[in-house]
Amino acid sequence: WIGSDARDLLHRARQRLLDDGTGKALEEPSRIRQIDVPGDDAVITNLRNANIATVVASGNSVRSNAISFPACISAAVSVGSTNKQNQVSTSFSNSANFLSLLAPGGSITSAYPGNAYIGASGTSMAAPHVAGAWAILKAAKPAATVTEILTALQNTGVPITDPRNNIVKPLIQI
To answer: Whole-prediction pTM value?
Structure first.
């Protein structure tokens, strides 16, 4: 559920992104233009080749054998969610054998429009934990590759078994 204040904020942000400097949104049918950019696969792969990680939430469709796009791109660092008991959030988190990591994503205190905070759950709450851990490790070892940091997080994580599919993935530990 998105409140009216949040909807208005999202609408204004979208308008700014679509404005080409004329003050008129590009969404007007006569002003729509196609922008030629590489596909998401190529973008994420190019970022990884440039030693930049793309940390992506695995999705909240309760799937035990698939993760959402773009987390399913092999060059992405995909993140599933755990709850406060360090168990996979089986009520929403997607899972697959190629999921990269797990992180806390259940009942996370999150900023909310209107100078407020709410408890939120989802893989989009888990992914920032990985991005933050990544930043700490990258700051400590700036020359580390994406693979080196991912391996470090995987090797030091606590193994957690998803009871839906018996897949074991590491819960990050920093």
So the answer is: 0.77
- For 101, the token pair is 């990591």
Express each pLDDT in 113-153 by its tens digit: 999 999 999 999 999 999 999 999 999 999 999 999 999 99
Residue 106 DSSP symbol: S
Question: What Å distances lie between residue 32 and 28, 83, 155, CA to CA?
Answer: 6, 43, 48
Instruction: Name residue 5's beta-bridge partners.
Output: none
Q: Are 123 and 99 in contact (CB under 8 A)?
A: no
Tell whether the model's pLDDT for residue 30 goes beyond 70: no
Cα separation, 148 vs 134, whole angstroms:
11
Q: Are 89 and 121 in contact (CB under 8 A)?
A: yes
Tell me how far apart the alpha carbons of residues 50 and 34 are, in angstroms, rounded to a whole number. 27
- For tokens 């009942």, name the residue: 107
Q: Between β-strands 108-112 and 116-120, what pairing exists: parallel, antiparallel or unpaired?
A: antiparallel
pLDDT higher than 90, residue 7:
no
Residue 95, classed as helix, strand or coil, is: strand
pLDDT at 35: 33
Provide the pLDDT for residue 58: 96
Tokens of 6: 């949040």
d(CA 27, CA 155): 47
DSSP class per residue in 135-159: HHHHHH-TT--HHHHHHHHHHHSEE
